[in-house]
Design a protein that fits this description.
The complex is a heterodimer of chains A (126) and B (313).
Chain A (H helix, E strand, L loop, with lengths): L11 H26 L8 H29 L14 H26 L1 H5 L6
Helix pairs in contact in A: 1-2, 1-3, 2-3
Chain B lengths: L15 H32 L8 H34 L3 H4 L5 E7 L2 E6 L8 E4 L1 E5 L4 E7 L4 E3 L8 E3 L5 E5 L5 E6 L12 E7 L1 H13 L7 H8 L29 E2 L4 E2 L2 H9 L1 H4 L13 H12 L3
Parallel strand pairs in B: 1-5, 4-10
Antiparallel strand pairs in B: 1-2, 2-3, 5-8, 6-7, 9-10, 11-12
Helix pairs in contact in B: 1-2, 5-8, 6-8
The chains are: A mainly alpha (126), B alpha+beta (313).
The structure holds copper (II) ion.
């Protein structure tokens, strides 16, 4: 059994990375908002929550990196140059792979940006 | 114009938070200019007729570094810098452990109610439209609104914070220079919004303590005709003068009114003539002001009351 299937033929691979970005965004903001709104009621410290969100961030980045790798493979590891606009099955595959790779890059950077406050903010604001 | 001089300018910072914002502004302006120049340079280069052609690979590399890597790094650095500034501007739980004293400021259409907490063995007291702060000491404001949304902003000392009915917002500032500053309401709140401001006087700690002591003691009776008329004509129903009249809360507290820089919450300079005009018909000098006109009073009475008020020092 292979860990990663040899080929995935679905439009969904295109959205994997942006979806991870969206989920990461929601998890970070909702967790911090609820934690701070309930000021002190949670049984763990702000540091613990920060650590947990840090872990979520690393997991999100790993997921996006995996999606990028699969896209890179679908794109033939850059063997052909864009724009891949022939009406053929091959070009459709290559185009999708390339688009997915770019979206993964965008999502990776976006997740990094979303997690910047985790580094600098150490407590809740009243 | 008061807007261009130092009293109400974020470009003449007199507090730690204002300095941080000022530096951020300089950084953005200088950085933005450099990037603009670089982009214009590239544009001119591209439009030059005789320039040698770039290969597709070279162009691709330019897009990757100039169009992707550079903005990502610059934006990440700017975001980190801005987020790093925040703890200095907002009070956080950790600092709350020491329970800082909060000056309560309430926005009212169209003036400012200011309550100092008890401290240093002195009781709490209320004043209006003018606050004094000791230089070099961090102060925390607890901000509320009585009617509609207002916004608290002392440009020379730091950023602004909304005052929202039913909610208490906090803002922490550290004045670093003595001086007199103007603080306008920064959220449209009705007809007289543009004429709703307060003065901030940052003073040496010793002077500040002396002022505080005098404030809590209140004014003493001078037995003047104006003092009698002030009570007689019903002013005391809305305005309190500590030491002389029972507390009242519909209008601004007028204890030591003579010390104030302005009359009408920043509308006019505090002179006998302007106070007379204001009492006769507040809405004539400050359209929308919620104090009733007293133009039915004899001119001498108004003059006596104005004389009395500007002498309350
Ligand atoms: Cu206002």
């Amino acid at each position: 059994m292979r860990l990663i299937p040899k080929e995935i033929e679905s439009l969904w691979t295109l959205f994997t990375a942006p979806t991870i970005w969206a989920l990461h965004f929601l998890v970070c903001y909702i967790t911090a908002a609820i934690y701070c709104a309930k000021a002190g009621a949670a049984p763990f410290s702000f540091e613990a929550m920060r650590l947990a969100l840090g872990t979520v961030t690393v997991a999100a980045l790993a997921g996006i990196a995996l999606s990028a790798f699969l896209a890179w493979r679908q794109w033939g590891f850059g063997s052909g140059d864009p724009p891949h606009d022939e009406p053929t099955r091959k070009d459709r595959m290559l185009f999708q792979g390339f688009a997915t790779l770019l979206l993964s890059g965008l999502s990776f950077v976006a997740v990094l940006f979303v997690s910047v406050p985790l580094v600098f903010i150490g407590t809740c604001q009243p | 114009m008061s807007g261009c001089s130092g009293v109400q300018s974020a470009l003449a910072p007199a507090g730690e938070e204002a300095v941080a914002i000022y530096r951020l502004l300089l950084l953005m302006v200088v950085g933005g200019t450099l990037i603009w120049l670089a982009v214009m340079g590239l544009l001119l280069h591209a439009a030059r007729r005789r320039s040698a052609r770039w290969t597709a690979q070279e162009a691709g590399r330019l897009i990757l570094f100039g169009g992707v890597a550079f903005p990502v790094v610059v934006l990440l650095a700017l975001l980190a810098y801005a987020v790093w500034l925040m703890p200095a501007i907002r009070p956080w739980f950790a600092r709350q452990a020491t329970k800082p004293e909060m000056i309560e400021v309430t926005g009212e259409q169209f003036w400012w109610r200011i309550r100092y907490p008890a401290g240093g063995g002195m009781p709490a007291f209320e004043t209006a439209n003018e606050m004094r702060l000791p230089v070099g000491e961090r102060v925390t404001f607890s901000l509320e609104a009585a009617d509609v949304i207002h916004s608290f902003w002392i440009p020379a000392l730091g950023g602004k914070m909304d005052m929202i009915p039913g909610r208490t917002n906090t803002l922490s500032l550290l004045p670093t220079k003595t001086g007199v500053f103007r603080a306008p309401c920064a959220e449209f709140c009705g007809t007289a919004h543009a004429l709703m401001a307060f003065s901030v006087i940052v003073m040496e700690p010793a002077d500040y303590s002396a002022w505080r002591r005098a404030q809590t003691a209140g004014n003493r009776s001078g037995g003047s005709e104006g003092e009698r008329l002030f009570a007689h004509h019903g002013c005391a129903g809305c305005h309190g003068i500590r030491g002389l009249t029972p507390p009242a809360s519909l209008g601004p507290d007028l204890t030591f009114f003579g010390q104030r820089q302005t009359v009408g919450a920043g509308t006019l300079a505090n002179t006998r003539e302007n106070v007379t005009r204001f009492i006769r018909n507040p809405a004539a000098v400050k359209p929308g002001a919620k104090m009733p006109a007293f133009d039915m009073l004899p001119d001498e009475d108004i003059a006596d009351i104005a004389e009395y008020l500007v002498a309350l020092e």
